[in-house]
Write a structure and sequence with these properties.
heterodimer; A: alpha+beta; Ubiquitin-like (UB roll); Fumarate Reductase Iron-sulfur Protein, Chain B, domain 2; two-stranded antiparallel sheet; 11 helices; 9 strands; globular; B: mainly alpha; 3 helical TM bundles of succinate and fumarate reductases; 6 helices; elongated
Amino acid sequence: MSDRKTTPREITFQVRRFDPDSDVAPHWGEYKLHVHDGMTVLEALHQLKAEQEPTLAWRSSCRMGVCGSCGMFINDLPQLACQTQVLHLGTDVVTVAPLPNYENVKDLVPDLEPLIEKHAAVKPYIISLDQIEINAPTGEFLQTPEERESISQFTHCIKCGLCLAACPTVATDPLFLGPQALAQAYRYSADNRDCGLHDRLEAIDLFHGPYQCHLAGACSQACPKGVDPAFAIQLLKRTLVLDSIGFGKKKSSVAKIMPLADVVKAIEEFAPPPRTV
Amino acid sequence: MRETRLWSLHILVLPIIAVLLGMHFAVMHYAPVFYGMSVDKAREFSTMIERGKSVTQLVLYILLLAAALYHGLYGLRGIIRELPLTPVLVKVVDAGIITFGLFIFAFGTYVTWWTFSYKIGG
């Protein structure tokens, strides 16, 4: 019995095309390609471009699910093209379109500017009360394995924007901060080294902030890195509510684990042996 | 005000609404079960006036009115403000909902007070 998810065969690719210089509206291009087991959608696109349609445009880089560049709407689901094997989709016709909820720059290239703007708005970095220590560090900051674990999954975000493409709230309310930015707001606010929750309130404690989430959970399903932004939004709500009634976590400035000089010494101790060639 | 406080309040009034609405249902719609009185009798003007003379009823109904209005209008604001509105329209919506809420609250309070202070036969 043949397995449709491994048997090499001809697949029809329906790719949404749009060139702002010549097209009034997007249209679909249809291409046929012989697909072998293990071929990803991104590889298929490269082959189509090389052999059939040299003007086809998309954005990609690492080819291994790390850079988050190749997010596309594949068979009506937001997915990374480099992580999606064509035969695993199980269909003889594969549709590839640009991510929804973004402006379309060209063909499969979405304009990720809103993602970046919302991400930047929540101040996604450690905000310390001790600016002197931040500018001229004298030691390492203490973080226990438990404290790290509590934020671990949210640090895996690669800013691919699939969660915003999947989010039904973003579809109807473009001002909604969205799962990516809100998850990062929680990731940094929950970090024991951060004291910046109040600096972020201006950006997140708004109508279009976490309370606008409709709890669809599509963001968590779409995330290619296993992050659960829907959960982060609920945790952020809890953080904000506790803070608003004065029961928020009281954080002091950074705690140091050892002087910087000792860190340098430790690194030198474990340095690799000198090169022999 | 921070959205967190508005949202928290909209959640906090839920148990108040559940309890008070339950009491309202017990009095008005389940009178045969809880008071051995027919529903028609429970809804008669004279029965309502009699009930309305209770200070407890006065306080609880005004509290229910406030809680239900806040919860409902906060939800309505959420639905309307999901529409693509200009900043001016956002202010109009917020101000309109507050004005409408205050008006309904004042009217409901007046009716409840009128019932409380109604003089039978006078």
